[in-house]
Write a structure and sequence with these properties.
- The chain has helices at residues 2-28, 40-44, 70-77, 85-95, 117-123, 128-132, 154-157, 174-183, and strands at 29-32, 144-147.
- By secondary structure, the protein is mainly alpha-helical.
Length: 195
């Protein structure tokens, strides 16, 4: 009887872990591919030599402008630069008709959170890689995963369902911001980020 209870408990515990780690995330998140693939490495590496800020800019007031508009892409891609299918799609479907690419944004913050990029990159002298990882060397875009309930990207919470980060830049939760501010002796009130 004692061993049967322990076996039942252990089996139930194991099943719960499997459901929690694998089945729950599969049910909670919906995967959507990006409209086209994008190779950051071609643009930022030896071949392209571009800095992150050449495409991901801030306006005169210091507000981050996010993903570049199609006009920025058209500066180089008004005509195909290569033979790839992605290049043809970019030119035919987006740059020629001046149609914005409907990118899925991995880092869109909740409406109650305000994140000023300029304060961090200009005043705080932080590099893009500190928060975004070595994204500039990626050769393809990850599949966008959206929470079916909240509508926010899985990248906000991090890939690991437990919340444990395998890389310092994973996840964009408040505890990460608070920890980073504490490490830099920043003492900001709630209103600094929640407006």
């Amino acid at each position: 009887m004692k061993y049967t209870s322990a076996l039942l408990f252990g089996s139930g515990f194991l099943i719960s872990l499997i459901v929690g780690w694998f089945l729950f995330p599969a049910a909670l998140y919906r995967s959507e591919p990006q409209p086209i693939q994008f190779n950051h490495k071609i643009h930022t590496g030896e071949k392209g030599g571009m800095a992150c800020t050449e495409c991901h800019t801030t306006d005169d007031a210091g507000k981050f402008q996010g993903i570049p508009r199609i006009a920025k892409c058209a500066e180089c891609h008004a005509a195909p630069l290569g033979e790839s299918d992605v290049e043809k799609i970019l030119v035919e479907q987006y740059t020629t008709p001046n149609q914005e690419i409907p990118w899925h944004v991995y880092s869109r913050q909740p409406d109650n959170a305000y994140f000023p990029h300029a304060s961090h990159t200009t005043l705080g002298k932080m590099k893009c890689v500190e928060c975004h990882g070595d994204h500039g060397n990626s050769e393809s875009l990850e599949v966008y995963q959206v929470n079916r309930i909240s509508g926010y990207s899985r990248d906000i919470w991090g890939k690991n369902i437990s919340g444990i980060q395998s890389q310092p830049w994973e996840g964009m939760k408040m505890d990460r911001c608070v920890r980073c501010h504490a490490e830099r002796s920043r003492k900001d009130g709630c209103i600094a980020c929640h407006k």
